[in-house]
Amino acid sequence: LTYPWRDVETQEWLTCSQCPPGTFVQRPCRRDSPTMCSACPPRHYTQFWNYLERCRYCNVICGEREEEARPCQATHNRACRCRPGFFAHAGFCLEHAPCPPGTGVAVPGTPSQNTQCQPCPPGTFSASSSRSEPCQPHRNCTALGLVLNVPGSSSHDALCTNCTGFPLSTMEPGGPGAEECERAVIDFVAFQDMSSKRLVRLWQALVGPAAWGPVAPREGRAELQLRLWRQLT
């Protein structure tokens, strides 16, 4: 690779060789000597064959949500990428979105792509928001030697019990199996397949309006069911 150069002393036009990446032109060629190239100083670079009189400064600075993907070297500028947990979009690093309950992670987020979620297929569930967990299979109550109490859904696992003392009115408080049967009733009530509004009304009927507290705007049915279950237990 060459470039035209006019000798300042003789005013003659010469064809000089360019300098390779990582160097710059220390002195142009002359009729009796080739181009003299020198290495770029620290924090400077040239990426291509060139006839620059000085190297370029490494001017890329990684932002708060970025990390250094490639350091500044003589042949290239510094390069940045989004830190783990973030991805690049329209010039910004945005946080990976979690997959909500009822959906699982199909493809984890990368520095260049957001999390990809998918609805949990029949027989699987995801009970919480996650940026890494796929849908999990429902518990097999029969294989565990238990009885299915509440069928699993896309947002909660199947709930099993070994309670055999129904109805509870025939059991003595604190007697054998009473605690397990009480838990089975709570599970059955809290994880009924009903709308969020009906869950709130059920809660208010069981505990009272004041005990429920405000409902967050994005609080879905899965969160409400878990909230009710925790309160009842």
TrEMBL record:
Gene3D superfamilies per the UniProt record, alphabetical: Tumor Necrosis Factor Receptor, subunit A, domain 2
PROSITE patterns noted in UniProt: TNFR_NGFR_2
Keyword set includes Thylakoid: no
Tagged with keyword Hydrolase: yes
Keywords of the record: Apoptosis, ATP-binding, Disulfide bond, Glycoprotein, Helicase, Hydrolase, Nucleotide-binding, Repeat, Secreted, Signal
Alphabetical list of InterPro entries matching this protein: TNFR/NGFR_Cys_rich_reg, TNFRSF6B_N, TNFRSF_decoy_receptor
Listed GO CC annotations: extracellular region
Cystine connections: C40-C55, C62-C80
Molecular function GO labels: helicase activity
CDD domains: TNFRSF6B (cd10575)
TNFR-Cys repeat residue numbers: 39-80
Residue span(s) of domain TNFR-Cys: 39-80
GO biological process terms on file: apoptotic process
Annotated compartments: Secreted
Name of the protein in question: Regulator of telomere elongation helicase 1
Phylogenetic placement of the source organism: Eukaryota, Metazoa, Chordata, Craniata, Vertebrata
